[in-house]
Amino acid sequence: MTFARFAQGLSQWAGSPKTFMAALVVICIWAATGPYFNYNDTWQLIINTSTTIITFLMVFLIQNTQNRDTDILHLKIDELLRATKDAQNALLSLDNLDQDELHELRKKYKALGTGEVNDPALANEQENIAS
After folding, report:
1. How does pLDDT run along the chain (131 residues), one tens digit per residue?
2. 53 and 85 share a domain?
3. Distance between CA 67 and CA 95 in Å, rounded?
4. 123 and 61, same structural domain?
5. Domain membership of residue 75 as a residue range
6. Given CA atoms 95, 101, 105, 110 in this order, what sign does their dihedral have?
7. Nearest to residue 39, comparing CAs of 26, 30, 49, 27?
């Protein structure tokens, strides 16, 4: 079993209502045992340590799931761009641009959407989209 498949399965399990209810039951049991243990440091350390470890591991699980979902969305959008006759195929390689280049491109498309086009190439693109 690969890590990706393991992470996907664990993500499905962790996000289920049954898992939430189980976590809620564990917290209630822990809280109910407080008087029995006189709310001592060990009693508090058990919940603090366990939640810290779970949170630490969940960060990586969530990031893996987010990366996978982002990749899937990019592939779907890339296919839509590729299949659309009037789309700019140059947009298929946006992941190779740095942050400044992406910001400049975003400004051009914002201008295209508001009608404030200063770039003749984008102006032609806007005319093609409108027709």
Report:
1. 688 888 888 989 999 999 999 999 999 999 999 999 999 999 999 999 999 999 999 999 999 889 888 888 888 887 887 788 777 777 777 777 788 888 888 888 788 777 766 555 555 554 554 44
2. yes
3. 13
4. no
5. 3-91
6. positive
7. 30
Provide the residue type at 125 as one letter.
E
Measured between alpha carbons, how far is 90 from 71 in angstroms, rounded to an integer?
Answer: 18
Tell me how long the chain is: 131
Task: Give the amino acid at 115.
Answer: G
Answer whether 0.70 is exceeded by the pTM: no
Q: Check whether residue 124 and residue 60 sit in a common domain.
A: no
Whether residues 50 and 111 share a domain: the answer is no
Residues 71 and 30 in one domain: yes
Report the pLDDT value the prediction gives residue 119, as an integer from 0 to 100. Answer: 54
Nearest residue to 78 (alpha-carbon basis) of 67, 89, 86: 89
Q: What is the number of domains present in the chain?
A: 2
d(CA 15, CA 38): 33
- What SS3 state is found at 35? coil
Write the single-letter amino acid at 101.
Answer: E
